Amino acid sequence: MAIFPFILLKSERLMHDQEIINHEKIHLRQQLELLVVPFYVLYLLNYLVNRLKYGDHHLAYRNIIFEKEAYNHESDLSYLQKGSWFGWLKRSK
């Protein structure tokens, strides 16, 4: 979990999982893009709309625009260096 400016992990072994770390770093940048607090507001609103739309927690979570960007690019370890700011907007279309 990413709570600016920290990444919180369930176990020490996850510190060595580059894809999980990259996924959470993408969330940190999303939080920076929206000046932190608005990120959490939009994240929650998007989840709630998705929950109504899909009726399922997992589907609602996976379709949050911020999660889509993070999951789609977590294996691309150079994604953040490529300068793809506001990539979550492109994923919402």
Question: Overview of this structure, please?
Answer:
It is a single chain. By secondary structure, this protein is mainly α. It has a domain at 35-81. The protein has helices at residues 18-33, 37-54, 57-62, 65-73, 87-91, and strands at residues 2-3, 6-7. The chain has a two-stranded antiparallel sheet with strand order 1-2. Strand 1 and strand 2 form a beta hairpin. Helix 1 (18-33) packs across helix 2 and helix 1 (18-33) packs antiparallel against helix 4. The protein starts with a strand and ends with a helix. The model has no long low-confidence stretch (mean pLDDT 94). It comes from Pedobacter yonginense. This is Peptidase M56 domain-containing protein.
Brief overview:
The chain is mostly helical. It has a domain at 35-81.
Strand order of the largest sheet: 1-2
Strand content: under 5%
Shape: globular
Structural class: mainly alpha
Radius of gyration, whole Å: 13 Å
Mean pLDDT, nearest integer?
94
Distance between the termini: 25 Å
Give the count of helical stretches: 5
Q: Which stretches are poorly predicted, pLDDT < 50 over at least 5 residues?
A: none
How many strand elements?
2
Largest sheet: 2 strands, antiparallel
- Relative helix content: 55-70%
Provide the succession of SSEs: EEHHHHH
Protein name: Peptidase M56 domain-containing protein
Key attributes of the depicted protein:
globular, 93 residues, two-stranded antiparallel ribbon, 2 strands, 5 helices, mainly alpha
Any chance you could write out the topology, listing elements then pairs?
Layout: E1 2-3, E2 6-7, H1 18-33, H2 37-54, H3 57-62, H4 65-73, H5 87-91
Antiparallel strand pairs: 1-2
Protein name: Peptidase M56 domain-containing protein
Organism: Pedobacter yonginense
